[in-house]
Design brief:
This protein is an alpha/beta fold. It folds into two domains: 170 residues, Alpha-Beta Complex (Quinone Oxidoreductase, Chain A, domain 1), CATH 3.90.180.10; 132 residues, 3-Layer(aba) Sandwich (Rossmann fold). Helix content is 27%, strand content 28%. It is built from eleven helices and 17 strands. Strands 3, 4, 5, 8, 9, 16 and 17 form a seven-stranded mixed β-sheet that branches. It has a six-stranded parallel β-sheet with strand order 12-11-10-13-14-15, with helices on both faces. The chain has a two-stranded antiparallel sheet with strand order 1-2. Strand 1 and strand 2 form a beta hairpin. Helix 4 crosses helix 5 and helix 4 crosses helix 10. The longest helix has 15 residues. It is globular, with a radius of gyration of 20 Å. The structure holds zinc ion (ZN) (2 copies). The site of one zinc ion has 4 residues, from loops.
């Protein structure tokens, strides 16, 4: 095995450099993973453009990542060299009150693989084995990057406690919206109503099993949602569109007792929203952050069983050394792709 590894480093907003390094050997409890694929999402775009405060450069991006175990620092029954894996990117301390309560995704000292620690825009990464989850050998590793996203979607739906027979509206039908639509259908929700302005995304939503599609912006979808729910309103609205305007539109669509699940967030202040519906309609607003190990395990199981087909979600693939071009294109056309994948195996 070569002990040289190439990685692509973000040294400033919108500025990548290719760097070589000598690979360290895995120590006890660590694995060296040969990275296969990294999907790029809005979180990466936000970091790439320098959006979040407190970013510390250089950053090696990449947190929706799959690969193959190349070497282990110590024996573990879960993993052997050659095992395909997906990475849990939520890096936790293990000793704060949240970690000790089993809410590791809320860790007070949490970091993201691909932001606070080096991510997968690299040929190899060194990572503790507890962040690695075995994937079925038959699963293509570029598509399997979507299982990280599916795990976050599953986390939100567990939080929102979706029940069979409930009317569910999903705002936005990008990768996360489509996975929400599919998972709600699998939970027996009915009708599952997909809302998007994009016709091609609604066609995909229908292919994912959406019972109804509404071709409209979030704020204009209310009359159609009311009609499709016989004037009663939705039990649950899941927001993957994430603008400041979506909270009010979503609450307006809920039946009394309904739940608004805020999956994608905007940093913009929300104006024009009154807390009164929390009393009068007794609606709940549910937040959801990241994922847990149970969510990753469930996502792998769902996809391995064939209930969710993520083939076709990878809209474009770039070799590792062209990562800069991938990000430039994604920034130009963020809504034109379900997922752009960066291939660390390609030359
Ligand atoms: Zn992501
Ligand atoms: Zn912690």
């Amino acid at each position: 095995m070569s002990q040289q590894s190439t990685r692509v480093v973000l040294v400033a907003p919108r500025k990548f450099e290719v760097a070589e390094r000598v690979l360290p050997s895995p120590r006890e409890g660590e694995a060296l993973v040969r990275i296969a694929a990294t999907a790029v999402c809005h979180t990466d775009l936000d970091i790439y453009t320098g959006g979040p405060k407190n970013l510390r450069y250089p950053i090696v991006l990449g947190h929706e990542s799959t690969g193959v175990v190349a070497a282990l620092g110590s024996q573990t029954p879960r993993l052997q060299p050659g095992q395909p894996v997906i990475i849990n990117p939520v890096i936790t301390c293990g000793h704060c009150d949240c970690c000790l309560r089993g809410h590791e995704h809320l860790c007070r000292n949490a970091g993201l693989f691909g932001r606070e620690i080096e991510g997968s825009l690299s040929r190899y990464v060194l990572i503790p084995t507890r962040y690695l989850y075995p994937l079925p050998h038959a699963m293509p590793l570029d598509e399997a990057t979507l299982l990280e996203t599916l795990a976050t979607v599953r986390h939100a739906q567990v939080r929102a406690n979706l029940q069979a027979g409930e009317a569910v509206v999903v705002f936005g039908q990008g990768a996360t919206g489509l996975l929400h639509t599919r998972l709600a259908v699998l939970s027996g929700c009915h009708p599952v109503i997909a809302v998007s302005r994009s016709r091609w995304k609604l066609e995909r939503a229908a292919a994912m099993g959406a019972h109804e599609v509404v071709a409209a912006g979030v704020e204009d979808a209310l009359p159609e949602v009311a009609r499709l729910t016989h004037g009663l309103g939705a039990d649950v609205v899941i927001d993957t569109a994430g603008g400041a305007h979506t909270l009010k539109a979503g609450i307006d669509m809920l039946r009394p007792g309904g739940r608004f699940c805020s999956f994608s967030l905007s940093h913009e202040p929300v104006s024009g929203v009154s807390a009164f519906p929390l009393y009068f309609k007794e609606v709940s607003i549910i937040g959801s952050r990241a994922l847990t190990s149970a969510d990753i395990e469930a996502a792998i199981e769902i996809a391995a069983g064939g209930a969710i087909d993520v083939s076709g979600f990878v809209s474009a693939t770039y070799p590792l050394l062209d990562a800069a071009a991938a990000f430039e294109e994604y920034e130009r056309n963020p809504n034109a792709y379900l997922r752009i994948v960066i291939d660390s195996r390609a030359d």
